[in-house]
Amino acid sequence: MTDPTPSRTDLPVVLDVWCDLQCPDCHAALADVHALRERYGDRLEVRLRHFPLEKNKHAYAAAQAAEEAAAQGVDWPYAEALLARTAELGTRGESVLLDTARELGLDAEEFDTALIDGRHLLIVDADQAEGKAIGVTGTPTYVIGGERLDGGKSQEGLRERIEEIADRLQADPGGLL
């Protein structure tokens, strides 16, 4: 009988991307996220983590909307569509959240209800609290292999650093190197 538990080497490396969905820097960071996904495929799990900044009036609602999109089976495509509209979200507000849902074929009425009833507040709050606990202060911030990389000031060199860490973790999943 074979053991159904995956071995440590079968598990993908996890990259947490702490993001504010109204942040233009997070939109710019998508080019790196796409390149990392292309390079690593299933060997890298990219997880969206919410860190809405106070200066961005609609970021908290956007994070909740992204969680509703995930509940409806469309996580990153929704987040990426919102990030492409950061300026519009800033000027038009929460109607952009519903418009984006409709454009992706999601249930916009359920989005509206989710924003009203706050069903995703705990997820967003937990992400934000965890981010603060590990020292996230701006977005985007990446965490991979226990290392925090702050992309809020500059994206320069971050993808290469993430690749170095991912390559090391894949070569030695136990972290013994």
Overall mean pLDDT stands at 90
Structural class: alpha+beta
SSE string, helices as H and strands as E? EHEHHHHHHEEH
Assess the beta-strand content as a share of residues.
5-15%
Helix content: 40-55%
Query: In one word, what is the shape?
Result: globular
Uncertain ranges = none
Strand order of the largest sheet: 2-1-3-4
Q: Whole-number radius of gyration? A: 17 Å
Beta strands, count: 4
Characterize the structure shown.
The chain is 51% helix and 12% strand. Strands 2-1-3-4 form a four-stranded mixed beta sheet, sandwiched between helices. The chain has eight helices and four strands, in the order βαβααααααββα.
Give short descriptive properties of this protein:
alpha+beta, 177 residues, 8 helices, four-stranded mixed sheet
Short overview:
The chain is α+β, with helices and mostly antiparallel strands and 177 residues long. It is 51% helix and 12% strand.
